Amino acid sequence: MSKLQNKVAIVTGATSGIGLATAKRFLSEGAKVVLTGRSQDKLDALKNELNGDFLLIKAEAASLEDSKDLINTTVNRFGKIDILFLNAGIFRVETIDGLTEQIFDDVYNINVKGPIFTVHSANEHLNKGASVIFNTSVVNIKGFAGMTAYASSKAALRSVTRTLAAELGPKGVRVNSIAPGPIETPIYGKHNVQQSQIDDMAAAFPSLVSLGRFGQSDEVANTALFLASDESSYITGAEIPVDGGFAQV
Fold this sequence. Notes:
Helices cover 41% and strands 17% of the residues. It contains seven helices and seven strands, in the order E-H-E-H-E-H-E-H-E-H-E-H-H-E. A seven-stranded parallel β-sheet has the order 3-2-1-4-5-6-7, sandwiched between helices. Helix 1 (17-28) packs across helix 7 (217-228) and helix 4 packs parallel to helix 5 (148-168).
């Protein structure tokens, strides 16, 4: 039997990488899936790539109005919400001397405020047994130069996971996080520094990973499926690392 049969899932930042892999995994397990992205062209390109009952919605992760519209559209179409995978995020590398208030605000608006207020908008529509999943990162426990804004935003989401797990637990809603390590995703092409610097950083990662390789988006998607399904029915407030041992060993 499919693990998510008739469940309704929202996956933010779902036009590529981890978000897209997870949306496809949820669809394959019988879920009705709402995928968001900031590019209408990229959303339109998915129409012939996806199979199942899905809805494509253009939404800016930092926009509270878009979050409200996302939830209202989902509820109007499917009537309920069982799974929220808050995956959308921005990656910035900025040493402290180059960090500006605008950069900091951009990172926190997308990585922290957006996910929190999406949960806020969805709260009254979450079914008993619903699963909320945040995409954090191993950088919330492991220090890297130039990641003051990015890493601290992911640490904030780890804290939010614990807080909302305590707050929503009495309603039967579980809240957990996935902390990816080095994963082969397009996020490494979405940054603000010279590509050579990113390439050097990426080249060093396999030697620091116990399994000796980058992870794949599908491996994160499999973990998201576990947290979204009833197989994790007694897990809440947790963060599961998917990092090949990168921040664990």
